[in-house]
Amino acid sequence: QLHISFPNTSFCQSLFCRYRSFILFLTFIFYTAYHLSRKPISIVKSELHRNCSTVIRPVDLNITNNATWCDWAPFDQDNYQTLFGVLDNSFLVAYAIGMFFSGIFGERLPLRYYLSAGMLMSGLFTALFGLGFYWNIHSLGYYAFMQVMNGLVQTTGWPAVVACVGNWFGKGKRGFIMGVWNSHTSVGNILGSLIAGVFVSSAWGMSFIVPGIIIASTGILCFFFLVESNDQESGEAEPLLQNAPHTDRTVNSAISTDPPGVVEDHTEAISFCGALSIPGVVEFSLCLLFAKLVSYTFLYWLPLYISNVAHFEAKEAGDMSTLFDVGGIVGGIMAGLVSDYTGGRATTCCVMLIVAAPMLFLYNYIGQRSLGTTIGMLLVCGGLVNGPYALITTAVSADLGTHESLRGNSRALSTVTAIIDGTGSVGAALGPLLAGVISPTGWNNVFYMLISADVLACLFLSRLVYKEAQSWCGRAPRQRG
């Protein structure tokens, strides 16, 4: 792995800040593209299976089934929700399995090459899904295979971008910085919804092809411009991973006058079991499993829910669903700010999850009564659901990846991030699957499932919340994780 070294001069400090801002912007764009390319499937669902009685039929169309003439086979069947669940889980199960290995590869391969290849391949498989429209493909196996392959290559993104940001940013305001940075998830969902919505009613294949081109383009951008890490030493500017007393600092001595150079990191990567033994990794991983279950159920099923319950068209339902992600941006930033101020990552997550449970209940029962109520409830629920998810996958992962028990191991962050997000991805796969199975029995039951998941997520954090409460009462030293 290559670093840039900055001598301790005022000019180089300024140059370092510019590099750091540039890397933050680049990684934001990269993961925005990852989420942008995941979103179209949730928008296109309501186009693949429609209420054909409300659609004007072309006079020259020769049909035999008036009820499903406008649907896209094989999603014209009565079990279409189960088939949608197959597509969702083809991606999410592959993503969950691949994530546990992705962090291991990410620590052993150059991040620039790893991210670039992942984005180019993701663009390819996303576009191939959309080309099924133009090639008139009606095989469930084809679309499921594209989802599996896309799920595998998308695992290159999260461990790599978190490790890259972790290499550049100091610890002082990690929650706030990563809370703002993590808004790329919601920004990507919003842009993905809007881009897919432009084409969904006319040619839904373009709803995948255009995002595929965008993420492939960012892969090329990554290859030419990403600088993986630095070797800067100065207070708040100190990288997240450079915190060991025995780390070799000779390249950035205070008296150095050499120009910025390149340094190689020889630290051994941490093992999978070693990462699991870090205090707090198991608890936060299991909490994220249920938090991500709720978040991804909304990601994949909210547009269809709005379309079915509020009777919106596909584009209108997709546009309305972006409000959930707007709330998620605010929720992620607020979670980071509060946890920075209080020092209680677990408590912040737990409180938001507890409040989210009754809000989900209210949204299901009164959320569609008026446009204003829908907007307000989507914003609130988005903030409460995505806030803990954002905090755990960013600041908490960085805290645990640089835990004192690692003794400065600078290559643990990618594996820790992969374990936490990989466990969460199991929940991300379960949520849409359960929604597909439960939704035919009524949307009320889906929301009961989501509320139960929120409660379970809180329970897994109870020990850590108790430890944080003790530290605030002065009974134990204040310590995160």
From TrEMBL:
Transmembrane domains' residue ranges: 21-37, 82-101, 113-135, 141-169, 181-200, 206-227, 281-302, 346-366, 372-392, 446-466
Q: Which reaction does it catalyse?
A: D-glucose 6-phosphate(in) + phosphate(out) = D-glucose 6-phosphate(out) + phosphate(in)
Q: Which GO terms describe its biological process?
A: phosphate ion transmembrane transport
One example of the protein's molecular function in GO is:
glucose 6-phosphate:phosphate antiporter activity
Keyword annotations from UniProtKB, A to Z? Antiport, Endoplasmic reticulum, Glycoprotein, Membrane, Sugar transport, Transmembrane, Transmembrane helix, Transport
Which Gene3D superfamilies does UniProt cross-reference here? MFS general substrate transporter like domains
Which residues does the UniProt record annotate as the domain Major facilitator superfamily (MFS) profile? Answer: 26-469
Subcellular location, in the record's words? Endoplasmic reticulum membrane
SUPFAM superfamilies tied to this protein: MFS general substrate transporter (SSF103473)
**Record family assignment:** Belongs to the major facilitator superfamily. Organophosphate:Pi antiporter (OPA) (TC 2.A.1.4) family.
Query: PANTHER family of this UniProt entry?
Result: GLUCOSE-6-PHOSPHATE EXCHANGER SLC37A2 (PTHR43184:SF9), MAJOR FACILITATOR SUPERFAMILY TRANSPORTER 16, ISOFORM B (PTHR43184)
What's this protein's name? Glucose-6-phosphate exchanger SLC37A2
Protein source organism: Lates calcarifer (Barramundi)
